[in-house]
């Protein structure tokens, strides 16, 4: 990771996942490379086209033919940002890699400082949100709640975290050796626990195109993230079960007393409520078990987390 003769440039990989970025990419990518320039550092740029359905692939191919530093990778379909990051890291050849978004929300002006901190001996350098911008988990209260819950459940504090990170080669190899299919990049990096330097920044607005994180996807991302790092939800099922059992027991005693005292009349409403409560809790519990089971199932199937197509293959 460190000091070589000044004359031999160090190779650093930039990993940039892109999905439907045809609008912004042709201007953003060259701008980004211009901003990132560091003396003594050579860049290779792994731009991963995550199965874009617009003209991103063509735009990327054009950019790559104009600049030898750009190494494009093309997915066969949309596998998601996490898979795109993994693909970039898998193919990176640099002494370090920096993961960042293509839409200018991760300011490349920070890259020289990130590299400086890395050379000072930090295996991980993380760009940290000073104030919450529009990027990441929808922003606002739901995100804060999620981070609170995540920290409680997993013991890992992700508040302010982004995917904008520099990783030393050793960390890249650690991540590559992790066999899990459903990845949660920032969680994995935090979990690995390498000493990290934090650089605060303000998230600027996106340039070109629109953010593609509809609510459903965000919720899935949050649930995935949580389940990958905690089995608290499974433990909660037991707690809820105990609670329902206590309520049901109490109701049973009351019902029995009324029966014996001859005052048992018209218990219909009570029955309905208890039945609904109990079956609701049961279903919820089953659902949570099911989600964990699905993860195990997916892991056992052992399918690759992403597939690459050759640039010359026809697009889907
Ligand atoms: N992205 C991706 N695959 C997806 C969705 C997004 O590779 O399925 C890329 C996108 O092109 C961008 C980065 O991930 O470079 C962040 O996405 P976006 O800006 O939409 O998210 P936000 O900034 O709102 O968190
Ligand atoms: Mg963005």
UniProtKB/TrEMBL annotation:
Keywords: Glycosyltransferase, Membrane, Transferase, Transmembrane, Transmembrane helix. It is a multi-pass membrane protein. One of its GO terms (molecular function) is glycosyltransferase activity. The keyword Transmembrane helix applies. It comes from the Bacteria. The chain crosses the membrane at residues 236-257, 269-294. Residues 13-137 form the Glycosyltransferase 2-like domain. It holds the Pfam family Glycos_transf_2. GO terms for cellular component: plasma membrane. InterPro entries: Glyco_trans_2-like, Glycosyltransferase_2, Nucleotide-diphossugar_trans. SUPFAM superfamilies: Nucleotide-diphospho-sugar transferases (SSF53448). It is found in: Membrane. This is Glycosyltransferase 2-like domain-containing protein. It comes from Denitratisoma oestradiolicum.
